């Protein structure tokens, strides 16, 4: 579009929302409308549902996104306080204004939900507005899958731009490591395709650089054959915790790590009983075709865990849609939510210490939060995962594959705004005291998985100074006026 025409339109309409409404018509919704209310209701957390933009733009194409960014770019100069904006796909990041904006413009990408399988079946192009189960359901009839989210209702866009963990990470690395092309709308409105050979600096930056360079309107990523596989949840009581920590350390450190084995080792505090239990999610992704028969014998890689006494089990042979739906049921939305995360060098002592500190924050304060849900999840990040990027052109996560690591995730859900401050206080305490303990044990690590980070954390700094400086250079090149740094305040920014 001609910039003079956009300036004239903005002056005539008096706001970015009304100029966008004129250009994009029914793709723009306002407070009180069915489309506006549906968009807000689709956020995972109550905090994000409670943020009310002046209007919501729902583009149906990259060209629509281009129009939107051109208006916002020019409007940001004319109406600097009216043309702030946010971008969301699935809306699963919990903190308020992470992907929404009060009295600004929210760009809702949910209508960018195309899924196109390449004729040779070796890649799939996915719109950012898809939820991962949409992608899996489209690929399944072809006997294919791609690396993606493990919770069915998580959106494609945010997870992939933040790195992304998958059931298939031991085979293929982070989700971003499987992306071969990004269709991106730059701040100026230009639509480009970033690959390893074209806009290669932008391609690399988008592999973990989040929402800092433009709006990705399509991801082309590797697809591969996959049938049913073995997985499910198993519950263990608190007496098994020491054995589980030792088993997880050995599992993560295995020099012959089984690439089919994926594991989420979770510890849940039961507010009603006042005690803890484990709820572990196992998957063994070696394809079993269309079989639904129980796997016998079970994979020996999990023997140190499965030998422990259990009080429930959902282990079965099924498909990825079923397993991601099960995980979603353990991560229900519609409440106040908090994520925070840290990464440590593989250590059973650190796993035990993290739980001990978490328990202290509960017993000393959080135990009186009504109807609170509280869990700690440990996820192995062995060298087999973090070294994969070296074979696919690299990424921007700052992990060199030299150490076996584990990710520690805290998830809290609650209902009352009056409890927000103390929930946040105790979450900060857990991370702070755990990092101190990690230094004592010599197992500290700077990396923070962006998709699990709290608002008050700085995952970009956790990538390392060299990576951060590289991301800043890409930002200056493609966004010289800093539109996505200043006009789009949500998410994690590159400049202090």
UniProtKB/TrEMBL annotation:
Q: Which residues form the FAD-binding PCMH-type domain?
A: 49-226
| Matches recorded under PROSITE patterns | FAD_PCMH
PANTHER family on file: BINDING OXIDOREDUCTASE, PUTATIVE (AFU_ORTHOLOGUE AFUA_1G17690)-RELATED, FAD-BINDING PCMH-TYPE DOMAIN-CONTAINING PROTEIN-RELATED
Q: Name one Pfam family in it.
A: FAD_binding_4
Q: Which family does it belong to?
A: Belongs to the oxygen-dependent FAD-linked oxidoreductase family.
Q: Which UniProt keywords apply?
A: FAD, Flavoprotein, Oxidoreductase
Picking any one GO molecular function of the record gives: oxidoreductase activity
Where does this protein come from, organism-wise? Acrodontium crateriforme
**Could you identify this protein by its name?**
Oxidoreductase FAD-binding protein
